[in-house]
Amino acid sequence: MSELKIAIIGAGWVAQIAHLPAWAKFNNVKILAIADVDEGKASKVADKFNIPNVCTDIAEVLEKVPEIDAVDICTSTGSHFAIAQAALLAEKHVIVEKPLATTSKEAKRLVNIAKERNKKLLVAMNHRFRPDSMILKSFIQGNEIGKIFYARTGWLKPKPKDFDSQWQTSTHISGGGVFMDTGIHVLDLSWWLMGNPNPVSVSASIWKNGKTPAPNEAEDSAVVYIKFDDDSSITVETGWTFNIEYDLINTNFFGTSGSAILNPLRIYKNLHGQVVNVTPVGKTATKNLFKDSYTYEIGHFIEVLLTDKESYSKPEDAVKRLQIIEAIYDSGRNGKEIKF
Fold first, then answer.
1. What whole-number percentage of the chain has pLDDT above 90?
2. Average pLDDT in the 330-340 region?
3. Are 66 and 140 in a shared domain?
4. I want to staple 51 with a disulfide (CB 3.0 to 4.6 A). Which of 46, 104, 148, 282 is the partner?
């Protein structure tokens, strides 16, 4: 397999702004089809990116271009499971935007199908592929700042004027509220950088307009505390309706012999009793982190398919990540600590 044949499912912003431009940077790839329930939108995107086949769903893609090797799923969360399942059962590799599914049970089902069919399944957690994240990962793996025992992370957003969208506020479409949308990113990045320890307990507070959400109502803010089996912990703050001027994003790591901050990347190490900045020179630029993360992510998926390299974003991680999020919702709605 020297050249990969790809189909894109979903013609929304993440496909147009992130995935398609990233695919276009690789010469050993051909995008053969794009599908969207809005065929007119799919046609416009196909014209822009020179994609020869326009379809309305995964079934039509599989019938029209059965020669594809992989499917890239860029649709809303609630459709991920059905599309991924159809692609895997048709013997296609899959890369899917986060989350893999709306429940850990569905995610586990997809992992099992991928194993049974010997197909690659990668969940697009693009923050793992940011250049600064990968640099920090190498420092942590090299024990440069010791054992990470605490991470503090958050993503707080001001409320936009057009917030009341069906996608964001309907749990049957999104699988949750702000935590499933933005909280999952900062949780996953911290958890991955810490080596994916197993969760022991979760305590959470979630709110909708300052009150605990009703059943099946999407939360707009959350604060979470997670303990792991290696005695480490993470706190996560997230929300998208705060009365603030601009996004507040933070990711801090505290180790036994150093610490680190992301965006901009800063790494500090205790050397002979002095805290020293050991950040690699020229590696702290933040301008193209978003676009670069998708380019590296797609490039990694291509490498996984062509060389059988182990994935940085294993589907088993997606199952455990959803189990953590399910515990967060259980804790937040019922006001109790959840133990694993």
1. 86
2. 96
3. no
4. 46
In this structure, are 107 and 192 located in the same domain?
no
| 262-312 residue pLDDT tens | 988 999 999 999 999 999 987 656 667 888 999 999 999 999 999 989 999
Same domain, 45 and 70: yes
- Does the structure show a pLDDT above 60 at 76? yes
For every residue of the chain, which 3-state class applies, written as one string?
A: CCCEEEEEECCCHHHHHHHHHHHCCCCCEEEEEEECCCHHHHHHHHHHHCCCEEECCHHHHHHHCCCCCEEEECCCHHHHHHHHHHHHHCCCEEEEECCCCCCHHHHHHHHHHHHHHCCCEEEECHHHHCHHHHHHHHHHHCCCCCCEEEEEEEEEEECCCCCCCHHHHEHHHHCCCHHHHHHHHHHHHHHHHCCCCCEEEEEEEEEECCECCCCCECCCEEEEEEEECCCCEEEEEEEEEECCCCCEEEEEEEECCEEEECCCCEEEEEECCEEEECCCCCCCCCCCHHHHHHHHHHHHHHHHHHHCCCCCCCHHHHHHHHHHHHHHHHHHHHCCCEEC
Same domain, 111 and 150: no
- The model's confidence at residue 171, banded by pLDDT at 50, 70 and 90, is confident
Compute the mean pLDDT over every residue in the chain, rounded to the nearest whole number: 94
One domain for residues 198 and 135: yes
